[in-house]
Fold this sequence. Notes:
The chain is mainly alpha-helical. The protein has two domains: 17-107, no CATH class; 120-351, Orthogonal Bundle (MetI-like fold), CATH 1.10.3720.10. 68% of the residues lie in helices and 3% in strands. The protein has 14 helices and four strands. The chain has helices at 2-27, 30-41, 47-56, 63-71, 118-153, 158-172, 175-186, 193-200, 222-252, 255-262, 267-279, 281-304, 310-319, 323-351; strands spanning 78-81, 84-87, 110-111, 116-117. Strand 3 and strand 4 form a beta hairpin. Helix 9 crosses helix 11. The longest helix has 36 residues, at 118-153.
Amino acid sequence: MLQFILKRLWVMLLTIFCLTFIVFVLTNLKPNLVRLAITQTNVQGTSAEYERWLDSRGYNRSAIVKYGEWLGVVPGWTNEINGVQEGRCKRVNQEVMPTYCGVLQGNFGFSSTFKDEVSTILGTRMVLTGWLMFWVMVVMIPLALVVGILAGMREGSRLDRGLSTFSIATTATPEYVSGVVFIALFASSKFGLSPLLVEWGWLSGGTLLKGSATSAANAITFDNFALPVMTIALYGMGYISRMTRASMAEVMTSQYIRTARLKGVSFTNIVMKHALRNALIAPFTVIMLQFTYLLTGVVIVETLFNYKGIGWTLVQAAQGNDIDLLLGVSIVAVILVLVTQLISDIGYVYLNPRIRIS
């Protein structure tokens, strides 16, 4: 197992290196650099003036050299701009400019959009997204497993068909659709449930839930966090419940389940003691992969509900052509995907003793 983990860690590092280099090259294409010069100078200049701005700040060099600087294995650029010595490694309140200042030194660059260190921004935003993902998993996984188990226990029954239809409907409805529907139903003062509850006297005023999660960055409450959690959880639970249902239905037709029935074991004991563990092997992998799939949902939902997590930050960085911040977010996304896949492989072995790692 240790040898397997070490090999996977080596592959993870190689994958991170390759993917970040691809993202680095794409974000440093010439049109993006010109746009960056335009946004940073804030003046209507000529192409020659933009080129001089890019030259003075080291943007017009080869991608390999710039990538080496970003990693921290190549000395950062230095240049005299308006009589002041500037450089990639220069920071505020820093007496001596270091030679190397890349990712390996813990320096992810400076955000041109938020005017702050990328590492500081990522740390703050990742905590916010972490809370969102935590509550999504708390809501999504138990509900999805219950739906899948109930459907798989009685394959072909009305309950199975009803729950399967519900699972397919949730999976087929993207977050930007369900999010808007939830806002209209629960967070609108003119439509949905809120006007009816006010009219009936069950609600003193305002709306049942908040349509914006901005205040959740300071204090999470049911009012400001329910809708984004529901939006992501509803979309993700369909995959888990369908996989659980298929796995449970297959296990319930196994020979050892039939033997247990013939011995007179109660149906509840058959499900809880014999079928459930084997039925959860395949859904476990799907649950771990949900961290990967939900990254897209996080971007959509955080933007829709104005929740300033890592997904919202990614959108702002893309709109502002913030190269360093885009690269920082890409590292976070790649590491999250690779780590969850590693945990999935290790957990799969422990859940299914028949699997051995060669």
